[in-house]
Amino acid sequence: VRPDLLLLDEAFSSLDVILKLDIFKVLGTLWEAERFTLMTVTHNPRDALLTADRILILGGSPMHVLRELRLPPRVRSSSDPEVLETENQILRCLSETP
């Protein structure tokens, strides 16, 4: 099966770190080969940063987009200084939301 769209809702939330990183690598390899759209819902900023090239931060009531981040479409590492800084920006944005 070669989907045009893959939807994942909290797919990584109950995985241990090693398995999660392995799945991120597999998803990256699949995406490189097939170039499908992957949409995931996560409460973990780092998961989003390691798998996405576009992040929408949602919050408020009623729910709305607080911020949109566009990232270069490349493989990122959790130790990448850009990833760490962007994660801090996301956490600040979320903590400032009433």
Write the layout of secondary structure elements.
Blueprint lengths: L4 E5 L7 H18 L2 E5 L3 H7 L2 E6 L4 E7 L10 H15 L3
Parallel strand pairs: 1-2
Antiparallel strand pairs: 3-4
Helix pairs in contact: 2-3
Could you give a short description of this structure?
The chain contains three helices and four strands, in the order βαβαββα. The protein is α+β, with helices and mostly antiparallel strands. The chain has one domain (5-95).
Describe the structure.
By secondary structure, this protein is of the alpha+beta class. The chain has one domain (5-95). It has helices spanning 17-34, 45-51, 81-95; strands spanning 5-9, 37-41, 54-59, 64-70. The longest helix has 18 residues, at 17-34. It is globular, with a radius of gyration of 14 Å. The N and C termini lie far apart (43 Å).
Major β-sheet profile: 2 strands, parallel
Uncertain runs are: none
Strand order of the largest sheet: 1-2
Radius of gyration, in angstroms, nearest whole number: 14 Å
Q: Which structural class do you get from the secondary structure elements?
A: alpha+beta
Secondary-structure element order, N to C: EHEHEEH
Note the gap between the termini: 43 Å
